[in-house]
C-alpha cells in the first residue's frame, strides 16, 4: 500500500518532533520532510512533492494563513492546519477552511494530546484523497437586488471542503435571495465564526438559525450546531426550528435532519448536497426528490471529497449534477420557477 507522504510545517522544533512521532506511528503515513517557515516549506514542497501538508498558523516572516493563500493560488495541495489559533470558534480556523484547508486541528494541550493526534491522523488520511482546486478565481459578486420573485426555499448541506463552496455559492446570491437554510458539519463555535465571516462579504443577511424564527427572503440561516439540529417547520409559513436530539447519520447538525424536515414543503424546495465525507444528507435528499423537490448534487470534479453527493446519486436522490462554479446561479434559477405539482417519476 502506498503511504501518504506528509510535510510538517511548524516553527517549533519540539512541536514538529511531537507531530512526526505521533503520525509516523500510523503505518499509512510517511513523513518525508519538515519545515520551520514558509520559505523552507516552499522548497520542501518542490523537492519532496508531499501528498499532504500540516501547517502551523503562527510562523515567523510569513503567517501560515498568508502562505496557505499563496500555496492555493500557485500549487494547490491538501493542507491540514494545526495550531494554537485554530481552536474552536477561531476566526483563523474558518479563514483557513475558506482558503482551502481540508481540516483545522488544535495543537495538543495537556491531557488531550492523544485525542488531538488521532484527529490529525484521520484528517491527513481524508486530505490525501481530497481534490484540491486552484483558489485563484475570485467569485463573482451578485447584484445588490435581483428584482426576482423567488417561489422556493433553498436548502444546502455540506461537510469537508464545503466552507469554500458555500462562500462561492452565496457570492452569487443577491440581497433579496430566496429563503435559505444551510447545515454544515462543524463545531458550534466554528459555525458562529463562519456566519460572522459570511455576513459582511455577501449580499444576503447571514446569521445563525434561531428557534421559531420565520424564514424570509434575503436571509441565509446556518445550523448553530452544538446540541441542536436545524429543521424547517411544517406546512404554512416557513419557520426555522432547533431540535435538541442525538447525532443523526453520525452528525449534529445533520443534513439528513434538515432535508427530511422539509418533506411537507417539497414541491417548494430546491435542495443541494455539497462536498463531504460519508453519507449524511443522502437519505434526506432522496426522500425530498421522491416528494417533489428539485435536488442538486455537486459534481465529482468540483468536490473536495465526493462522498455525500456520490451516495445521494447512487440512491437516485440527485435530479441534476452541477459544477460548483455554476451552483449558485442554478439554485437561483430553479428557485424562481413555479413549485412542482408532482413527484418525479424515477
UniProtKB/TrEMBL annotation:
Protein keywords: Chemotaxis, Cytoplasm, Hydrolase, Phosphoprotein
Q: Do you know which PROSITE patterns this protein is assigned to?
A: CHEB, RESPONSE_REGULATORY
GO MF annotation: an example: protein-glutamate methylesterase activity
- Modified after translation how? Phosphorylated by CheA. Phosphorylation of the N-terminal regulatory domain activates the methylesterase activity.
Every copy of the Response regulatory domain together lies at: 5-122
Q: Is this entry keyworded Coiled coil?
A: no
Q: Which reaction does it catalyse?
A: L-glutaminyl-[protein] + H2O = L-glutamyl-[protein] + NH4(+); [protein]-L-glutamate 5-O-methyl ester + H2O = L-glutamyl-[protein] + methanol + H(+)
Q: Which residues carry this modification: 4-aspartylphosphate?
A: 56
**Entry annotation: catalytic residues:** 159, 185, 280
**SMART domains given in the database record:** REC (SM00448)
Q: Which GO terms describe its biological process?
A: chemotaxis
Chief location of this protein? cytoplasm
Known Pfam families for this protein? CheB_methylest, Response_reg
- Could you tell me which SUPFAM superfamilies the record lists for this protein? CheY-like, Methylesterase CheB, C-terminal domain
Domain of life here?
Bacteria
- What does this chain do? Involved in chemotaxis. Part of a chemotaxis signal transduction system that modulates chemotaxis in response to various stimuli. Catalyzes the demethylation of specific methylglutamate residues introduced into the chemoreceptors (methyl-accepting chemotaxis proteins or MCP) by CheR. Also mediates the irreversible deamidation of specific glutamine residues to glutamic acid.
Family matches, as PANTHER family: PROTEIN-GLUTAMATE METHYLESTERASE/PROTEIN-GLUTAMINE GLUTAMINASE, PROTEIN-GLUTAMATE METHYLESTERASE_PROTEIN-GLUTAMINE GLUTAMINASE
Can you name this protein? Protein-glutamate methylesterase/protein-glutamine glutaminase
According to the entry, what is the taxonomic lineage of the organism?
A: Bacteria, Pseudomonadati, Pseudomonadota, Alphaproteobacteria, Rhodobacterales
Amino acid at each position: 500500500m502506498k503511504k501518504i507522504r506528509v510535510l510538517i510545517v511548524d516553527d517549533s522544533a519540539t512541536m514538529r518532533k511531537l507531530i512526526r512521532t505521533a503520525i509516523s506511528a500510523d503505518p499509512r503515513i510517511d513523513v518525508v520532510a519538515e519545515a520551520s517557515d514558509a520559505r523552507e516549506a516552499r522548497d520542501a514542497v518542490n523537492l519532496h512533492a508531499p501528498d499532504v501538508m500540516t501547517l502551523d498558523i503562527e510562523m515567523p516572516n510569513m503567517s501560515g494563513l498568508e502562505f496557505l493563500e499563496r500555496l492555493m493560488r500557485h500549487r494547490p495541495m491538501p493542507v491540514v492546519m494545526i495550531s494554537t489559533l485554530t481552536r474552536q470558534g477561531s476566526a483563523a480556523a474558518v479563514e483557513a477552511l475558506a482558503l482551502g484547508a481540508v481540516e483545522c486541528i488544535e495543537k495538543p494541550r495537556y491531557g488531550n494530546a492523544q485525542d488531538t493526534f488521532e484527529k490529525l491522523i484521520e484528517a491527513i488520511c481524508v486530505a490525501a484523497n481530497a481534490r484540491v482546486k486552484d483558489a485563484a478565481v475570485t467569485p463573482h459578486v451578485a447584484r445588490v437586488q435581483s428584482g426576482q420573485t423567488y417561489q422556493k426555499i433553498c436548502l444546502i448541506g455540506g461537510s469537508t471542503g464545503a466552507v469554500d463552496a458555500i462562500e462561492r455559492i452565496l457570492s452569487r446570491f443577491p440581497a433579496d435571495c430566496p429563503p435559505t437554510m444551510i447545515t454544515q458539519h462543524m463545531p458550534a463555535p466554528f459555525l458562529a465564526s463562519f456566519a460572522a465571516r459570511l455576513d459582511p462579504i455577501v449580499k444576503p443577511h447571514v446569521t445563525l438559525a434561531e428557534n421559531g424564527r420565520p424564514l424570509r427572503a434575503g436571509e441565509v440561516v446556518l445550523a448553530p450546531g452544538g446540541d441542536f439540529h436545524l429543521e424547517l417547520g411544517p406546512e404554512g409559513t416557513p419557520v426555522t426550528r432547533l431540535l435538541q436530539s442525538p447525532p443523526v447519520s453520525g452528525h449534529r447538525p445533520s443534513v439528513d435532519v434538515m432535508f427530511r424536515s422539509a418533506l411537507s414543503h417539497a414541491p417548494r424546495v430546491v435542495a443541494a448536497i455539497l462536498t463531504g465525507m460519508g453519507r449524511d444528507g443522502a437519505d434526506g435528499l432522496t426522500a425530498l426528490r421522491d416528494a417533489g423537490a428539485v435536488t442538486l448534487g455537486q459534481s465529482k470534479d468540483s468536490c473536495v471529497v465526493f462522498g455525500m453527493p456520490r451516495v445521494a446519486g447512487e440512491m437516485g436522490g440527485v435530479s441534476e449534477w452541477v459544477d460548483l462554479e455554476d451552483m449558485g446561479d442554478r439554485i437561483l434559477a430553479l428557485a424562481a420557477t413555479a413549485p412542482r405539482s408532482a413527484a418525479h417519476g424515477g
